[in-house]
Specification:
By secondary structure, this protein is an alpha/beta fold. It has 24 helices and 20 strands. Strands 10-9-11-12-14-13 form a six-stranded parallel beta sheet, with helices on both faces. The protein has a five-stranded parallel beta sheet with strand order 1-2-3-7-6, sandwiched between helices. Strands 16-18-17-19-20 form a five-stranded mixed beta sheet. α18 links the parallel β13 and β14.
């Protein structure tokens, strides 16, 4: 098997794709082509004819800028990616975008490009594999047995998220996680020693990883080191590969000039000549290389077919296990899930974070594939599934994650779990710390991953902890993200409905925003059922039938406040409506008829009330309405003092309402 020719063919395709687009990064694909050739042709388990095969190995290119490496491999391996698509690299409508995008290109496991994110995704995938293996493998019947391979770069290891994610991977002992570190010592600005002199071996040994080193261009040594990595049973493995960026280029190899720009037509020709490729042919693939990949494809198709047959036998012998497998893979929910929700006593106010804890216990029993955890804040976010066990080193049967103080990694790991399949994951922290993993949230939105975020301590009502812990701008910051669903429930019963809505949403992430302070439980014998939350907004109360003179729109903890103020003003004979609007995004999915029934166009006198910045509320209050919120940071004081100082009182809201009615 001529793996040198395969590697050089990959280099040629990568150079040509970047050169034709006049944009891209040729150096990294050229430097890692040897490793990639060995991995795909001698170690990686995949099936191009069935890219979704559950027991395939996962391959993650964390430095997504080097995606011509991945596209070349996928094309050669027989995925549905024609050579013409490589010629359309970075062009409108192509399946070869400038960074890998999950859902666009067959065989791309995750969207990468923001450095370090692929590292976190990989940890999530390896974790999901380990959890599935403990749940579904039986003595003599192994249906889950695959590896997660990745390539990381100098840039990935400089980013803090790689530290968070790889530290947790080492702690847990994810031995089926194998990364190749493309140590070419070059970044865009020049040599890495401008800003980077870490001892990577010591760093990863400190993480409890198995660390191996290799000449990244020695085919035989690469094969040997990958074989050795697979024998490790206790630790993840980092293979430090000493490589040359732009390998093969006579004048640009080893330089930053080959990192992020085309080599130039003449240098491409010179490089092809040096590599033994036809200098006058672009996107050249030798017949021998096609034959090598075709033989590998046949071999792997037989492996996949053997697995499918074994799984059918497993299904017949263990129908309960198979049913659980199917439900988890399809994220199927029980038809009567809502009936499992707890009933809250209207006589006992409760914080929605605590209500959420009660809800989670019911959902844990009804949805066995629900897993989740917190960034070291479970006692405060109230997100532990009682009695369901913990994920611990070399022990993956539990359902509670302990991410440690690693919010950024938590977000990326949850994305990896969602991408892998088999679980529905949630992650929790104080709302203000969503800033720490916003990049991971953004990628969940881009990939439309059904991750759930439980974000507590949702406003200035955090109180004594002060402005550093009091989210003000965060709700709007999440709402502006495409494909994000934000839900801020008004009371404990709406909190249960919020969880149901989140579980039903499989087209993107959902954030559930919860209070630290107690809220009254609305008596649903007097108010609409809480499942109206799935409408996004609904009429909670109106003082009298007919057309309202003014509409109060509120979310979360401000709904009871709006209700109290409305009742006060109604004593004046004002016809007033209160709308609970837990989710803008869910409301926007409704028909015009439903929207107009909640917010009739004829009533232009509207007041929105929310404990956060008011920018954005114009959409619902219009030119004649107002929004009352907090357009500055909070302060350190008891929350009741802050509420009074900031005007979040029944008296002040009633005053504003009376003023608006009088102006009308």
């Amino acid at each position: 098997m001529n793996l040198v020719l395969v590697a050089n063919t990959i280099r040629g395709l990568a150079m040509d794709g970047v050169q034709k687009a006049n944009s891209g990064h040729p150096g990294m694909p050229m430097g890692t082509a040897d490793f990639a050739a060995v991995l795909f042709l001698k170690h990686l388990k995949y099936c191009a004819a069935n890219p979704a095969w559950a027991d395939r190995d996962r391959f993650i290119l964390s430095p997504g800028h080097g995606c011509m490496l991945l596209y070349s491999l996928l094309h050669l391996a027989g995925y549905d990616l024609k050579l013409d698509e490589l010629k359309l690299f970075r062009q409108w409508g192509s399946r070869t975008p400038g960074h890998p995008e999950h859902g666009i290109t067959p065989g791309v496991e995750t969207s990468t490009g923001p450095l370090g994110q692929g590292c976190g995704n990989s940890v999530g995938m390896a974790l999901a594999e380990a959890m599935l293996a403990e749940r579904f493998n039986l003595p003599g019947e192994t249906i889950v047995d695959h590896y997660t391979y990745g390539i990381c770069s100098d840039g990935d290891l400089m980013e803090g998220i790689s530290h968070e994610a790889f530290s947790l991977a080492g702690h847990l002992g994810l031995n089926k996680l194998i990364f190749f570190y493309d140590s070419n010592r070059i970044t865009i600005e020049g040599a890495t020693d401008l800003a980077y002199s870490d001892d990577v071996r010591k760093r990863f040994e400190g993480y409890h990883w198995n660390v191996l080193e290799v000449d990244g261009h020695d085919i035989a040594a690469l094969d040997q080191v990958l074989t050795q990595a697979r024998t490790e049973t206790q630790r993840p493995t980092l293979i430090i590969g000493r490589t040359t960026i732009g390998k093969g280029s006579p004048h640009m190899a080893g330089t930053s000039e080959s990192h992020g720009a085309p080599l130039g037509a003449e240098e491409v020709k010179a490089t092809k000549k040096a590599l033994g490729l036809p200098a006058d042919q672009d996107f050249f693939v030798p017949d021998e290389v096609r034959a090598i990949f075709a033989a590998r494809a046949r071999e792997l198709q037989a492996v996949e077919a053997q697995w499918q047959a074994a799984f059918q036998q497993y299904r017949a012998k263990h129908p309960d296990k198979a049913a659980a497998w199917d439900a988890a893979r399809n994220l199927a929910l029980p038809a009567d899930l809502e009936k499992s929700l707890p009933v809250f006593d209207p006589a006992k106010p409760i914080a929605t974070r605590n209500a959420s804890h009660t809800v989670i216990q019911k959902l844990a029993a009804a949805v066995p594939y629900l897993v989740g955890g917190s960034a070291d804040l479970a006692p405060s976010t109230r997100t532990i599934m009682d009695g369901q066990g913990d994920i611990k080193p070399h022990s993956f049967l539990g359902r509670n994650f302990h991410f440690g103080i690693r919010e950024h990694a938590m977000g990326a790991i949850l994305n990896g779990i969602a991408l892998h399949g088999g679980f529905r994951g949630y992650g929790a922290t104080f709302y203000v710390f969503s800033d720490y993993f916003r990049p991971s949230i953004r990628l969940a939105c881009i990939m439309k991953l059904p991750v759930i975020y439980v974000l507590t301590h949702d406003s200035f009502y955090v109180g004594e902890d002060g402005p550093t812990h009091e989210p003000v701008e965060h709700t709007m910051a999440l709402r502006i993200m495409p494909n994000m669903t934000v839900i801020r429930p008004a009371d404990p019963t709406e909190t249960g409905a919020a969880w149901i809505a989140a579980l039903k949403n499989t087209e993107g992430p959902t954030a559930i925003l919860l209070t630290r302070q107690n809220l009254p439980v609305l008596d649903r014998t007097q108010f609409p059922k809480a499942n109206k939350l799935e409408q996004g907004a609904y009429v909670l109360w109106q003082s009298a039938p007919g057309r309202p003179q003014i509409i109060l729109i509120a979310t979360g903890s401000e709904v009871p406040l709006a209700l109290d103020a409305a009742r006060e003003v109604a004593k004046d004979g004002v016809k007033i409506r209160v709308v609970s609007m837990p989710s803008w995004e869910l409301f926007e999915k409704q028909t015009d008829k439903i929207k107009k029934s909640v917010l009739p166009p004829y009533c232009r006198c509207r007041l929105a009330i929310e404990a956060g910045v008011t920018m954005g509320w114009e959409k619902y209050v219009g030119a004649k309405g107002r929004a009352f919120g907090l357009n500055h940071y909070g302060a350190s004081a008891p929350y009741k003092v802050l509420a009074k100082e900031y005007g979040f009182t029944t008296e002040n809201i009633a005053r504003i309402v009376r003023e608006m009615v009088a102006e009308k």
